[in-house]
Design the sequence.
C-alpha cells in the first residue's frame, strides 16, 4: 500500500462499524465530564480509550479488516496502561526540559517573595522560558511522538510485549525498511489530518465530540497499515 491507499482505507475504516465509534465517543464524554467535575479522575478512562486504539492497531497488523469489539475490558485497560506508560517514557526528555525551565522561573518567584522585590522578569528569564518551550515543542513533534507511534505499533506487533516499544534498534530498522522519507510524509499527513479533524470539530461542540474519537480510530488503523508497508 502507498500512503494514499493507507489514508483512504483508514478514513473509511471507523465508519464500517458506527456502534463502536459511538461507544468510543461515550468514553470520551465520560472522561471530559469527570475531568470537568473532579479535575483528574477522568483520566482513569484514558487507558480504556488507549487500549481500544491499541487493539485496532493489533487487529489491523494481524490482517483483520473489521473494527474490533469493545469486550474483555480488563485486558483493554491493561493494554491501555502499557500505551500510556510508553507515551510517558518517550515524553520524559520533554518533561525534564520543561521542568527545568519552569523550575528556574519558580525559584525566582520564591526569591522575589522572600526579598520583597517586585521587579518584573528580566529578558534573560523570558528568553530562557521561550527557549525551553521551543526545545520541548520540537522534541515532542520531531522525536517524541514519532518514536511513541512506531514503538506502539511494534508493541502491538509483538502482542503487547512492553519491551518491544523500546527496542530502538528494531524500531530504527523498521523505519529504515519502510523508508525515512515515506515515514516523514506519512507523519506529516497524520498531522494535517489531525488539524482537519480539529477544524471540522471546532465548528460545533457536537462536531468535536465526534471527530476526535473518529480521528484516533483512523490514526490507529493508518499506523498499523503503514507499519506493514515495508
Sequence:
Amino acid at each position: 500500500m502507498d500512503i494514499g491507499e493507507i489514508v483512504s482505507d483508514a478514513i473509511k475504516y471507523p465508519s464500517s462499524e458506527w456502534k463502536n465509534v459511538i461507544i468510543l465517543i461515550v468514553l470520551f464524554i465520560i472522561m471530559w465530564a469527570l475531568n470537568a467535575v473532579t479535575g483528574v479522575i477522568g483520566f482513569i478512562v484514558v487507558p480504556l480509550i488507549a487500549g481500544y486504539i491499541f487493539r485496532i492497531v493489533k487487529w489491523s497488523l494481524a490482517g483483520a479488516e473489521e473494527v474490533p469489539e469493545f469486550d474483555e475490558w480488563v485486558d483493554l485497560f491493561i493494554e491501555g496502561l502499557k500505551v500510556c506508560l510508553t507515551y510517558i517514557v518517550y515524553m520524559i526528555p520533554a518533561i525534564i526540559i520543561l521542568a527545568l525551565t519552569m523550575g528556574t522561573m519558580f525559584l525566582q518567584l520564591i526569591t522575589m517573595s522572600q526579598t520583597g522585590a517586585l521587579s518584573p522578569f528580566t529578558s534573560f528569564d523570558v528568553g530562557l522560558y521561550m527557549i525551553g518551550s521551543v526545545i520541548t515543542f520540537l522534541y515532542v513533534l520531531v522525536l517524541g511522538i514519532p518514536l511513541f507511534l512506531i514503538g506502539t505499533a511494534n508493541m502491538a506487533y509483538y502482542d503487547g510485549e512492553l519491551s518491544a516499544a523500546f527496542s530502538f534498534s528494531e524500531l530504527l530498522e523498521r523505519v529504515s525498511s519502510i523508508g525515512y522519507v515515506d515515514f516523514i510524509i506519512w507523519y506529516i499527513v497524520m498531522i494535517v489530518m489531525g488539524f482537519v479533524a480539529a477544524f471540522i470539530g471546532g465548528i460545533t461542540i457536537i462536531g468535536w465530540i465526534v471527530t476526535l474519537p473518529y480521528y484516533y480510530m483512523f490514526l490507529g488503523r493508518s499506523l498499523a497499515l503503514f507499519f506493514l508497508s515495508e
Observations:
- The mean pLDDT is 88.
- The CA atoms of residues 152 and 165 lie 6 Å apart.
- The first helix runs from residue 3 to 12.
- The two ends are 9 Å apart (CA to CA).
